[in-house]
Amino acid sequence: MLQWAWEYTKRVGTLLIMNFLFGITMFLVFALDNVAARVAIVFVMLAAMFALDFFLMRSAGEQDFKMSVIGEAKRRNKPSGAPEGHSTYHISKEYRVYKGFLIGLITMALAIVLIVAALFIVYGWLYFPVVAIRLEANLFFCLIVFAVALTLFGVSYIIGGEKGRLQHYILLKKTNAISEMEKKN
Among 17, 35, 82, 156, who pairs with 54 as Cys (CB 3.0-4.6 Å)? Predict the structure, then answer.
């Protein structure tokens, strides 16, 4: 159980820190007087953040699929390629379709909790009535961003897993072709 928690903590922590740094940068952009430049820069930063999240989750899906292949080899008592006792394999590192969405959900939930906690600390009990009266559109935009990010995390993780599956398939085909050639000779 501890291994599962550590695995998810590493993935969520990386995404949360990267998104937090992008968020701080976007927050600092609001010091600009030019509204058009401010909006353009924030959207560029948001796109860059989503691109980084995509690449991180895609590579996570790819790595996890490779762990699934190693796990399948271990379950079939086949050699996995790592020396005995030196494998980094654990079942928590295996590819599962839901993992990308779960990692995204935890990341977004923590972001929402941190945002609400920070605003509550800064503005106290006055924050929530003010938000309810004046900032419905901004909150709606935040929810859209969270939904897009959650979808992006899940889909990019699945794309990474499929990339790993394709690489494994190509490797198997090449290995089989080599074996066939050796049998003919």
Answer: 156
